[in-house]
Specification:
26% of the residues lie in helices and 23% in strands. By secondary structure, it is α/β, with parallel strands linked by helices. The protein binds manganese (II) ion (2 copies).
């Protein structure tokens, strides 16, 4: 009797010992990566350091002084966007295999004028970034990251909360003792955006006892000594709270990794590692990985996937590689290109079985997820991958023994979501979402499986070979 049924087993099942070692070293390295990649700016830093180690040269977009384009290079745009390119053994006329991910994650931004004294405390006013369940961000340690620029144009990098000696910040929740009315409320009414104020200080100086806003003044004195800034410098600053919680293994068997920002830094890391490990074959397509910002708020803006950055990167290649190229060549190249939108999907959460459909939702530990479509309410707003492309991709995965699974975001009409896929699909290239399953997505402490991380890494390496 032939085996006609579709049977799924987890990645760890029958895994050889030497592969298990690779799984562990990859996840160890990922934990290091994630503990440093806390914001898009710090992610760019960590990614570019790694690229340099592997012989990638940094160039600027349309750099006039550039005589020859290196075969391995990367471009940083506005410190929040990065494209790395490997042209070794590639003919650009064959198109490009793109691994595209995003490095922004939901968080709590400071308001432009954030410092305020409320009763006897100094507080930071905030405006959240991305889709969050607000209650999850109360009473957890928060670290402050970002950039403040002084009047003199000095750029100050702020990072407070992730070093053992640093203070942290907290958005205080209401004690249960006084919550009898609150717990009866709807979740989105119980905690509103304007309630997300974080405690920033509580004491004042004896000399300034009689001053207005004396607690604020005391804190500003500390900031002025440390950074040379005044309150007005906040007005133009870029500051954000992220969980001051380090990623770590979860479960007795150390099979899971809990951490902030798995969406989408787990896919970004797996893409980066795939590109670094990739050995280009002759007559291959070029290999490019792009890390975008602003995905969590709709991919708008100059550093989001709706920008023209991808076109600029291709123009940059054409300018050096094809003499007298015509502008429509960029269309030809994109039409011949393959894209993996390396983004996560929602893993089945056993505490909430009512929203998942077991046969079609992704499971932690069962491998990288191919998400054929996203969107909501009858696939609305989705870029659906066509079967020809899925066939080509999964055939390559089979050759390279990549374990993968399918995934749908919960039951039909239960919710939904989107990715970068549809913004890239407008160019006419093959695009599919393919990334890790994540539990408790967009929470300050998400869960992934280290086996899925390994699976994603092998999948992305396999994809880069695609003809
Ligand atoms: Mn994502
Ligand atoms: Mn997301």
């Amino acid at each position: 009797m032939k085996n006609l049924l579709f049977n799924q087993t987890p990645v760890f099942d029958k895994l050889e010992k030497h592969i298990l070692k690779k799984v562990d070293s990859l996840s160890d390295e990922y934990i290091q990566f994630l503990s440093k990649a806390k914001t898009e700016r710090t992610s760019i830093k960590v990614i570019s350091e790694l690229l340099k180690k592997y012989g990638y040269k940094e160039i600027e977009l349309y750099q006039d002084s550039l005589k020859e384009l290196p075969n391995k290079f990367f471009i940083i745009f506005q410190n929040k966007n990065l494209a790395c390119v490997n042209l070794e053994n590639a003919d650009i006329n064959n198109g490009i295999n793109f691994l595209i991910s995003h490095i922004d994650a939901p968080r709590i931004d400071l308001k432009q004028n954030p410092l305020i004294e409320m009763s006897n405390l100094l507080m930071f006013k905030t405006h959240y970034y991305g889709g969050i369940k607000k209650y999850q961000w109360l009473n957890i340690p928060l670290a402050l990251y970002g950039i403040i620029m002084t009047k003199e144009g000095k750029k100050i990098e702020v990072s407070i909360g992730d070093n053992a000696n640093d203070p942290i910040f907290v958005i205080p929740d209401l004690a249960i003792h006084l919550s009898s009315k609150m717990i009866e409320k709807k979740m989105n009414e119980a905690i509103t955006g304007e309630m997300l104020n974080a405690v920033a200080g509580s004491i004042y100086s004896q000399h300034e006892k009689k001053e207005n806003q004396k607690i604020k003044l005391y804190a500003l004195n500390i900031l002025n000594k440390k950074y040379g800034i005044k309150e007005t410098d906040f007005l133009t600053a870029e500051l954000q709270f992220v969980p001051a919680i380090s990623p770590r293994y979860a479960g007795f068997d150390l099979s899971l990794i809990a951490g902030y920002g798995h969406d989408d830094r787990s896919c970004a890391f797996a893409s980066l590692k795939a590109l670094l490990d990739y050995i280009p074959q002759k007559t291959n397509k070029a290999a490019v990985s792009i890390f975008y910002d602003k995905e969590e708020i709709g991919s708008d803006g100059s550093t989001g996937a709706k920008s023209r950055f991808i076109e600029d990167v291709i123009y940059q290649i054409l300018e050096h590689k094809i003499r007298n190229f015509k502008s429509y060549y960029i269309r030809k190249i994109l039409l011949k290109s393959n894209v993996i939108s390396a983004d996560v999907n929602t893993a089945i959460n056993p505490n909430f079985p009512e929203v998942f459909e077991n046969q079609n939702c992704s499971k932690l530990g069962y491998g990288v997820v191919i998400t054929k479509f996203t969107g909501s309410r009858g696939k609305s707003g989705a870029s659906e991958a066509n079967t020809e492309y899925l066939n080509k991709l999964t055939a390559q995965f089979a050759k390279d023994k990549v374990k993968w699974q399918i995934g749908e975001i919960g039951k039909v009409d239960e919710g939904g979501g989107g990715t970068i896929a549809k913004f890239i699909a407008k160019y006419g290239c093959n695009v599919v979402d393919c990334g890790l399953p994540v539990m408790s997505m967009h929470s300050p402490f998400e869960l992934i499986s280290k086996f899925d991380l390994y699976s994603a890494h092998t999948a992305y390496k396999s994809f880069l070979k695609l003809k």
